[in-house]
Specification:
Length: 83
Amino acid sequence: MKTRTGFVSNSSSASFVIAKGLLNPEQIKGLLDYVYDPTNIDGWFITDTGEYIDGFTTMDNDAIDDLFEKLQIPEKNIRFHGD
């Protein structure tokens, strides 16, 4: 079981923001490509705002954690809205 602070799993919505300066080009591409990935079962909408990568879903069941782990994005670099 994963434990997080400041993030509620299985909530009806979730969102995050990551400063692009904390990501490498492969991580940015992986996050943006995830929108069209069949494993995006929670319907994450992820955009590049220029300075940040923003993500939002109306149904979250922790699938995004697997993507962050796959792309080797440290949790300390991710700010979930509400933190």
